[in-house]
């Protein structure tokens, strides 16, 4: 079947393929979206298997390809995968911490045909950056690599995950980006999945912090525009301060196809936490996974929706919100995303906001994303 069953959504191709090459990472960010039990020892796909995934994805119609992780640079076959992706005609994006990157690698990736590199930072100063990243040399390395990326002719795309411990740095973060000559800056307030959900109380900013940060971003935009700067600031507000849910992944199984390091195919990077069986690329073709697998069809269309989503006139816009968030907050992924003011579980969001007003956790109270902590989770 290459369409949809009767009464279900019409299924187009997966335009966006995310290759999560590995869960290995030299950093320990406490907001990582990888699963808590990432260190459970599953084998990573081989180079040949990844090449096959890329070819099948392109045949299906995927146009954008993201390489992420963990830290994708730990895979020695990354240049080979980039070269194949270019040959196949993908627009390719590398999402990296910058750790493990060198000037030579930046050039080699450009030669192989990489279109875009996004370097993530944790803060505007080395102390906080390195404390959050759990690495003493991270900041220095990120600065050097951001510059190398620009020097190699890529647009400079920087990403800062914003939380209660760095949100006061908004002005300094924007200054740093200007000094570096960034073209695009993503100021992405933490979303609460994976390790970030585990650490939510220690990470979530208060409404007052958020309001101030947003005003600072708006002021900076006005100033940059007046000065003729082309630097774009993209401020992503957290779901927990919204009254309507986001159209997560533009709808389940609608555009996005993620392949996890062990070959599990997912409609979003967090979905493996759901009590749903997802197929493996080692045993099922990508076409069958996308069009026919029960996992990818589970939340397509709207026939699965309970109230209040089923009769909501916004369901075609937000698709009931995020299934992973519904599961994390209510224990049932069928429920409306509690972010929605119409959800009977919206009180959980309101309680989290109230908790953020009084939170006192320091950086030392966060659970850092590392193999040791991950092993604790899969044993329990
Ligand atoms: Fe999985 Fe939203 S993150 S559906």
Which stretches are poorly predicted, pLDDT < 50 over at least 5 residues? 1-7
State the helicity in percent bands: 25-40%
Which ligands are bound? FE2/S2 (inorganic) cluster
**Largest beta sheet: strand ordering:** 7-6-5-4-3-2-1-8-9
Q: Report the portion of residues in β strands.
A: 5-15%
Query: What is the H-and-E element order?
Result: EHEHEHEHHEHEHHHEEEHHHHHH
- First and last CA, distance: 41 Å
Shape: globular
Average residue-wise pLDDT: 95
Taking all Cα atoms into account, the compactness measure Rg is 20 Å
What characterizes the major β-sheet? 9 strands, mixed
Look at the helices and sheets and give the structural class.
Answer: alpha/beta
Q: How many individual β-strands?
A: 9
What count of helical segments does DSSP give?
15
Function: Catalyzes the cross-linking of a glutamate residue and a tyrosine residue in the PqqA protein as part of the biosynthesis of pyrroloquinoline quinone (PQQ).
Keywords: 4Fe-4S, Iron, Iron-sulfur, Metal-binding, Oxidoreductase, PQQ biosynthesis, S-adenosyl-L-methionine
Family: Belongs to the radical SAM superfamily. PqqE family.
Subunit structure: Interacts with PqqD. The interaction is necessary for activity of PqqE.
